[in-house]
Specification:
With about 325 residues, the chain is of the alpha/beta class. It folds into two domains: about 5-175, Thiolase/Chalcone synthase (Peroxisomal Thiolase, Chain A, domain 1, 3-Layer(aba) Sandwich); about 180-335, Peroxisomal Thiolase, Chain A, domain 1. It contains eleven helices and 13 strands. It has a five-stranded mixed sheet, with helices on both faces. A four-stranded mixed sheet has the order 8-13-12-11, with helices on both faces. The longest helix is centred in the last third of the chain and has 22 residues, at about 225-250. Oxa(dethia)-CoA binds near residues 37, 157, 264 and 323. Oxa(dethia)-CoA (UT7) binds near residues 33, 38, 227, 228 and 322.
Length: about 325
């Protein structure tokens, strides 16, 4: 049986830094509240003049990942693109990347699993490689949140949290079974779909209906989050799915070299760190600089950790995510 291994990582974040203080110019919020509740100090928001979009940022991160993998775009067999903020309702961003990078007419799959999207995408790519169907797969996570947030006081509990950016990984076939993606575990619980949701426009609430209602208080086309409810579920599910991944590989928490959690809230990461009795250098966090970038968060964090030399050959790396759906997931990787 084939095995799969990450052989290239890349990230791209917009240049435009929005500090907590900057947000106070258009909503009632303050640096202390944001830092205390979330750990976030600044985030990147696209400057529309630059031409960056979810697909464009995904393509920029991908170029770096492919180059670092020592491959060219012609070596990639398949694209998996995870995002909740695509450039268009349809088609998805995957086909845009195929075109932007000038790739052959390979398949492109879009994944819609929000904060768990990158791990879901990685899992799909892992299966395609392990069955022998494809050799090199580009897995992308990218978000343009700033294009769709309610940037008034009404939306402050959500809009101060989210940031823009993209990351990409090249997953490749290897015959070495001692390294690579050891396991992925995926979960969902749709009964809580509306606790973290953006409802419209959608087929259940289409544009003419919204226009006809002409309701200035209509918030359905902005993200809604029941923050404390999501928080409580997040800490439980993060722990469960990490344990599940470790158990499947006959590992214990002592075997973790580096945990890269989805960057939802620094308090969640700290809770998990304490629960698993991990040292500061065993958990990688960058939410302070980027906020929550949803499907991009884990792959941006993993790329930065690797760039900083914190991901070493032979290390056991654990990725874990929880978010809208609810969906949650983990991946255990022997680097
Ligand atoms: O990535 C997907 C998964 N997401 C998560 O896991 C996120 C989980 N949830 C959270 O991280 C936290 O619930 C939040 C950071 C979203 C919110 O923190 P919280 O401690 O749960 O605050 P809260 O929503 O209960 O709001 C507390 C107070 C409220 O005021 P009152 O009612 O106590 O007077 C809010 O109106 O804070 C107020 N508030 C703000 N104040 C200043 C809400 N947002 C802001 C803000 N600035 N941006």
């Amino acid at each position: 049986m084939y095995n799969s291994k990450i052989i290239g990582l890349g990230k791209y974040v917009p240049d435009n830094i929005v500090k907590n203080e900057d947000l106070s110019a258009f909503m009632e919020t303050n640096n202390e509240w944001i830092v205390e509740r979330t750990g976030i100090e600044e985030r990147r928001w696209i400057d529309p003049k630059t031409g960056d979009t979810t697909a464009v940022m995904g393509a920029k991160a991908s170029r770096i990942a492919i180059e670092r993998a020592g491959l060219t775009v012609n070596d990639i067999d398949f694209i998996v693109f995870a995002t909740l903020s695509p450039d268009m309702y349809f088609p998805g961003c995957g086909v845009q990347v195929q075109e932007m990078l000038g790739m052959p007419t390979i398949g492109a799959l879009d994944v819609r699993n929000q904060c768990s999207g990158f791990i879901y995408g990685l899992s799909v790519a892992d299966q395609f490689i392990k069955t022998g169907m494809y050799k090199n797969i580009l897995v992308i996570g990218a978000e343009n949140h700033s294009g769709g947030l309610d940037k008034t006081t009404r939306g402050r509990n959500v809009s101060v949290i989210f940031g823009d950016g993209a990351g990409a990984a090249v997953l490749s076939r290897t015959d070495d079974n001692s390294k690579g993606i050891l396991s992925t575990h995926l979960h969902s619980e749709g009964q809580h779909a509306k606790e973290l949701v953006l409802e419209g426009p959608s087929t259940q609430r289409w544009v003419p209906e919204i226009l006809e209602a002409n309701d200035p208080n209509d918030e359905s086309y902005y993200p809604y989050m029941n923050g404390q409810f999501v928080f409580k579920h997040a800490i439980t599910r993060f722990s469960e799915v990490i344990m599940e991944g470790l158990a499947a590989n006959n590992m214990t928490k002592e075997d973790i070299n580096l945990l890269v959690p989805h960057q939802a809230n620094l308090r969640i990461s700290q809770f998990i760190q304490k629960k698993f009795k991990l040292e500061d250098d065993q958990v990688y966090n960058n939410i302070m600089r980027y906020g929550n970038t949803t499907a991009a968060s884990i792959i941006i964090a993993l790329t930065e950790a690797w760039e900083e030399g914190k991901v070493k050959e032979g290390d056991n790396i654990v990725l874990a995510a929880f978010g809208s759906g609810f969906t949650w997931a983990s991946a255990v990787i022997k680097w």
